[in-house]
Amino acid sequence: MAPNTAVIEQKVEYKLGEKQEYKTKVVWFNVVLFLYLHLSFIYGVYLGFTATDARTLIFAYIYANVGGIGITAGAHRLWSHRSYKAKLPLRALLCIFSSIAAQNDIYEWCRDHRVHHKFTETDADPHNIKRGFFFAHMGWLMCKKHPAVAQKGKTVYLDDLWADPVVRFHRRFYVPMVLLFCFILPTMIPVWFWGENLWTSFFVAGMARYCISLNFTWLVNSAAHYFGDQPYDKYIEARENVAVAFLANGEGWHNYHHVFPWDYATSELGYTLNLTKIFIDFMAMIGQAYDLKTAHPELVKNRKLKTGDGTRLKEVEDSDGDVCKTS
To answer: How many domains does the structure of the chain reveal?
Structure first.
C-alpha cells in the first residue's frame, strides 16, 4: 500500500516547526563516582575523629591548599585569564599543583572556564547558575553538556593554551600525574614519615582531602553566584562571598572578578582572604611571576558608581571633586 504523503508532509512540517526542548542526560557513571567520593569523605571524617594521627590531619589540610593554589594561581589566574606571566619553573610547579587538585587537565579546565566567562548565565555556560544551585555546584559534572556549550565553545580562543608545552604535557600525562600526586603521594607520605595506617591515610589524606577541596572549588560556581553583594555589577549573578573567599584561597570575590577578569588579584581588597595573591606576589618577588595585571582604581570606582548595588561604597569622589554619597 502506498504511504499517505499528505500525512507524512504534515508530520514533518509539525516536527520542523516544533520547539525542541533540551532534556538533561544523566551520566550515571559519574554519579556513582561522586557518590563513592562523598561516602569516602564521610568515612574519612569518621577516621579523622577516631583513628588518625594529628600530623596526618595537618598534612591533609596543607596538601589540599597546595592543590588549591594549582587551580587558583595556575589554571585560573595564569592560564585561563592571562592575568600575569610565569617562567617555566613556576608553570611546571603549578602543573604539579593542579595534578594534586585533579579537576581535569589544564587545557580542559581553562576551556570550560573561558566558555563560562564568555557565555555566563546562558545555556552555553557549562555550570549555568540559572539551572539551579546544585547544577552549578556539581550537577553539571554528572550530566552531558548542553549542546550550546559545545557549539559556542568553538568560538573561544584556545591557541595560546596549546602553545604552552606545560599545558600539552599535562594533557598528555594527566592520568598518571593525578594518580601519583592526588592519590599515591598523599596516601604514602603519612605512612612513610610517621607510620600512619595505610587504610586511614588513604581515606583521610587521600579521599576526604580530595573531596573537600573539590567542593570548595565548586562553591565558586554555586555559592559565589547565589549569595552575597554585587558592588561592581548588580546585573550579573556573580557575587562577593566572604566564606567562599576564605575556603577557596581568594576566589570568592567573584563579582569583582567577573567585571575585571584580567586582574591577577581578583579583588581590590589586597591580601584580605586571598592566599593566592600572596602566593603570586611572592613568586613575583623571587622573579618567577611578572607582568601582573591590575584594574586601575579609577576604573573600579567608576564601575561601582555606574552599575554597583551600592555596597562597599560609602563615599566616592566624582571627577569634579564633589562627594557622591550612596547607600
So the answer is: 1
Stated length of the chain: 327
In a domain, 319, yes or no: no
Per-residue pLDDT of 129-145, as tens digits, reads 999 999 999 999 999 99
Q: Own/partner pairs for 54-57, CB < 8 Å, 24+ apart? A: 55/190, 55/194, 55/196, 56/190, 56/194, 56/196, 56/200, 56/201, 56/204, 56/205, 57/204
Closest to 243 in 3D by CA, of 264, 215, 262, 282: 215
How far apart are alpha carbons 182 and 180 in whole angstroms?
A: 6
Residues of the chain with pLDDT under 50: 1-19, 315, 317-327
Summarised one tens digit per residue, pLDDT across range 45-84 is 999 999 999 999 999 999 999 999 999 999 999 999 999 9
262-266 long-range contacts (CB < 8 A, ≥24 apart) are: 262/81, 262/82, 262/83, 262/293, 262/295, 263/83, 263/293, 263/294, 263/295, 264/77, 264/83, 264/84, 264/292, 264/293, 264/294, 265/294, 266/77
Residue 17 falls within a domain, yes or no? no
Q: Which residues pair with 241 in a beta bridge?
A: none
Does residue 171 lie within any of the structural domains?
Answer: yes
How many helices (DSSP H) and strands (DSSP E) are in the chain?
17, 4
Please write the tens of the pLDDT for every residue from 265-293: 999 999 999 999 999 999 999 999 999 99
Which pLDDT value is given to residue 316?
A: 55
